[in-house]
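> example.struct
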């Protein structure tokens, strides 16, 4: 996430996002800024009602295999549910610009991103289905070669 948006999150939610913990900032693209902001707002609301949860530590906010992943220590079932919900919602939000995502795309071999139609076209990504079928074909080809050797 770009510095300007990262700073906004740090400044708006200092009790949740601590610089010394999130040394890599928010390891995803800008499109999830609003998603993370909404999650932080919900967490704050809950923590205000349950002050004993002040020990909640957010260790990592990142993209993993295309999805948002928030790693925490402490918290309660509500906190875990709010985070799980945001992680699931990330599949519906283009990671690059925040528009509705149309699917999981692959920039082979390592980058997985949920993208909107425009971004998927601009970046020439292929869908996860295409990727998996190409992988399957490549595996089959390798296996056939091994059999003929
Ligand atoms: Zn997009």
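> example.seq
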């Amino acid at each position: 996430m770009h510095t300007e948006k990262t700073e906004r999150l740090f400044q708006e939610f200092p009790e949740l996002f601590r610089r010394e913990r999130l040394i890599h900032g928010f390891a995803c693209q800008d499109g999830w800024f609003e998603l993370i902001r909404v999650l932080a707002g919900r967490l704050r609301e809950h923590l205000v009602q349950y002050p004993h949860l002040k020990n909640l530590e957010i260790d990592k906010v990142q993209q993993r295999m295309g999805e948002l992943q928030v790693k925490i220590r402490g918290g309660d079932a509500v906190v875990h549910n709010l985070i799980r919900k945001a992680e699931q919602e990330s599949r519906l939000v283009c990671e690059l610009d925040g528009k509705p995502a149309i699917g999981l795309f692959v920039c082979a071999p390592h980058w997985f991103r949920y993208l909107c139609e425009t971004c998927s076209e601009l970046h020439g990504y292929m869908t996860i289905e295409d990727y998996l079928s190409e992988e399957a074909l490549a595996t089959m080809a390798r296996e056939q070669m091994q059999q003929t050797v």
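> remarks
Residues 99-149 form one domain.
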